[in-house]
User: Fold this.
Amino acid sequence: MKVVIVGGGAGGISTASNIRKIDKNIEITVLTRDNNVAYSPCAIPYVLAGKIKSFDDIIMKKPEDYKEKDIDVITEAEVTSVDSNKKVVTYEKEGKEIKLDYDKLVLATGGNPFIPPMNGSDLEGVFQIRNIKDGIKVQEWAKDSKNAIVIGAGLIGIEIAFGLKKLGLNVTITEMLPQIVPRSLDKDMADILTNYLELEGINVVLGQPITDLNGEEKVESACFGDETCIDADMVILATGVRPELELAKMAGCEIGRWAILVNERMETSVEDVYAVGDCVESQDLILGANTISHLGTTAVRQSKTLARTITGRKSKFNPVLNSMVSKVGKLEFGAVGLTTSFAQQNNIKPVVEKVEALTRARYYPNAKPMDIKVICDADGRIIGCQIIAEERVAERIDTMTLAITEGLTCFDLSNMEFAYAPPVSMVTDPLVIAVEEVSKKFN
Assistant:
């Protein structure tokens, strides 16, 4: 059997590795336009911030490492067409057009950076960060820059803004919506993070889109819709990605509202064509509707499902909750499930409580404040959680991910057993405090 995988990101390279773990005889070829594989794009901001020494440190494996496992990784290859009837993929490399036949085709094409409608986005000094090569360009350009603007205050935008600040630049981060991290946090929780960024010296501008980037050849300033302008030697477009669907459409795959439609086995509507990662739609566990989940963890889970599908094993990809966690400076923040506003948009009447607790026993040295927000539906079922603290956020988000997945109510969780020791928790865990408070709103 010949398996051709288009895309060398988390979904593509993980699919190849997982297939090989199950079956040693399948012929596997990975085609990627990148010159690196098996690296962590999520780590790029931390290299910029100096937390990770070098971009080389975030490359886990090289193409020759996969060759040892009989996986042929072809880098700097641009796939130009897919013929699903003849089962042929065409790609270009070094000016040559090459055709490759397949038995099974995996589309892991990811997403393309979204460029908002603005003048001057093609000026020198305007960057999108999609891969290591982009990260290196930003790092080099920053050496001769003084003022940086990051457009888009999602996870990557915030992390990059902090990284550039640590490089010594004056940094402004802008968001056209009235809060940062709008997909994962409610405004009251986002405001905690905004205040922290401002304390770190980052200027945060909300509710105002940038409409113009100005300069002769290089970017020199950015202007908002009200014609207010600020100086800029460099601009980072952290405005999200849109699924790359051109090859899927060539293959005849059915496209949903945002991305490729797949079933729970990662099969598309076209026989022997599969898809994983940022280019597919997933099912939301709470709403039951399709959504997009642009998370590396989602892509890796999908790749494991797909590897089992291709090798004839029983497989099923479960619906998603978009569980996330990040760290900016000293502050960790995480979320899972629905925000209050998103629940309301989907005709769910949320019952919400926000509490303040501590990460350790209050008498133990260096106990840190922890803000927790729990969101339930009208029946008390937990549908969302947001946490901000200087430590111990990830494991509590994971706990709430499990609670939501299992359909627990706030009453269920308030009676569960939690481990305790003064250096690592309060005797009543902060999660229990939060769900006990929201429980009081029910009869």
